[in-house]
Write a structure and sequence with these properties.
Blueprint: H1 7-22, E1 31-32, E2 38-40, E3 47-49, H2 56-59, E4 62-63, E5 69-71, E6 77-79, E7 81-89, E8 95-103, E9 107-113, E10 127-129, E11 134-140, E12 145-153, E13 156-159, E14 163-164, E15 174-176, E16 179-180, E17 183-189, E18 195-203, E19 210-218, E20 224-226, E21 230-235, E22 237-243, E23 249-254, E24 258-264, E25 271-277, E26 285-293, E27 299-306, E28 315-323, E29 334-335, E30 352-361, E31 367-373, E32 384-390, E33 392-393, E34 398-399, E35 403-409, E36 424-432, E37 439-446, E38 460-467, E39 477-478, E40 486-491, E41 497-498, E42 503-514, E43 517-529, H3 543-551, H4 576-584
Parallel strand pairs: 2-8, 28-30
Antiparallel strand pairs: 1-4, 3-6, 5-7, 7-8, 9-43, 10-11, 11-12, 12-13, 12-14, 15-16, 17-18, 18-19, 19-20, 19-21, 22-23, 23-24, 24-25, 26-27, 27-28, 28-29, 30-31, 31-32, 32-35, 33-34, 36-37, 37-38, 38-39, 40-42, 41-42, 42-43
Amino acid sequence: MPARRPAASLAAYGLLSLAMMTGARPAGAVIVPPAVRALELPVGVVSVSATDPLLAPILTAASTIGSPVTNNLGSTVLTIGKTPVTWTETTSGATLTKYIYLYPAGWQVLGWTGNLRVFEHNGCRHILYDTYGRVHVIYNDAVDVWYRLGVRSGRRVDWQAPVQVNDAATPIGISSSNGTRGQTFGMIYDASGNVILQCTWSSSKPVTRSVWTRRLTVDTAGSVTAGTPVNTGLIGSFQCIVADSTGRFHLAVEKYSDMLYANSVNGVDWVNNVTWNAAAGTCTAYRFPNLLVDPQDRLHLLWQAESYQGYSSRWWVLVYSVRDPQTGQWTAPVNALSGIPGWEAPTTGERVLAAYPNMVMDDRQNLHLAWHGSVYSNTFGWDDTFYMKKPYYSGSGTWGPWGDYVCLHRRDHFNNGQGEDMNHSWVPSLAYVPGSSEFYAMFMYGLVDDEVSDPSVNATEGALKTFTGAQWLAGFANLTQTPAMRSWYMNAPSQVLVDPNGHKWLDMIWVDGTLDDYNVIFRRIDLGGGLAGDVNVDEHVDVSDLLILARSWSRSTGQNGFDPACDLNNDNTVDAADLLILAGNWGT
């Protein structure tokens, strides 16, 4: 005789049976997707079955009513890129579809964000290095600001757990459906050798675009201590912060109607405020500050000035000013593009728009400036990228005029054969190689601006262009190669890392994904140099390198098992030519 069901169970059973007969489903079932839906694949792996244990963490969803949840992938083989997955709650039949993302080895997923504009401000720093060889990064997830500390391990970086920078009372300020208005940090050291990071972000509290700052202390063991968040009293966004040789922090902030400046010796009291008013400068907006400090503690401030000299929405320039550390006085802002061919005042119908500047100073105090603009298209969003340099003369301690002007990438805007291809390019980021004249420019490119034109289109990639010290090489390298996804606002630190043995590395950070569903990605790019054949980067060529190369033997780009670190001659295949290079330095 079957066991008697309690009355309540009978009632529930009857309701469920009725629902199944009528096609209705129990209400209240919600599928909870995995917190992380992105995976960096191991070295040499470019595809993986959905049944592989590697994917278990990002395929396992849960249900709020506790019933099993299945997915529709079965034994599907997934490749690098995005794959839609539908989870089904077995009792209710409720479904949820999301993308999961697979990235190649070396693309390290730092976090998730719903914010396309995490790294929009290419003129400030999102990656810093300390004297201990560690990497510091800052980003946001559309609600909170996060800091992560990384330690190099061979060709990659090992990351500590993220640390929240803001608190519940100071969330990041989202300015539009497309994202935020910036976070960044500056660095000094205390008397004990601890790293002091002065973090700053724009919050929605207590009023929209309130600029906050918070000090993080990172000791030599990697422990992080956070101070109290401080309201600077400034209202704005797209901050840029640097520290001088005395440990004083200097902060520049875009208010849009004004450019603001203040400084602080303790990160708490922000004083010596200066305001440059856009209207007084016959402009409608001052935007995207770039702030640098030189070895003499002079400050170099450059920003974007819109509707310059009253040319409403038709002339944007880049203005530049210098602060004397002794007097605290700033020079009158001047148009850095004055005298540069094509960037003069527009004629009727022209739109000469210079935007998103990135200014860096190399270790010889030369200033380098990159930006994007519409000088060839006269159309907002139809941009190309440009570069110029302001040389420093050590004898006189002064800088010469801006020169060495060049278009880094030019689109063939009107099919007249005057451009490289049909790609626009935007938001450049520069990095110099210490002790040399070698330079790199990183920028975003694509057939359309997939934010302005159509947010559902995924058409942007990241590019890298090389200056050898004598010339810019033709063409560029595609850094992202994710045609089905959006790769946005890739940023580089201002300098390339160089190992003691001469090996060069360039770090980059950016967002990658699809509409409102992005991953914060960090990648360390191998620029070569150093000891040829040192595959594991331990400054020796020995049997450990040979064993790594053997695992990739006869493999080519795109095949499982191919390790690009073993392709020593960069011909996309690991073969005898690479073995000979390794053998040439055997025992070194």
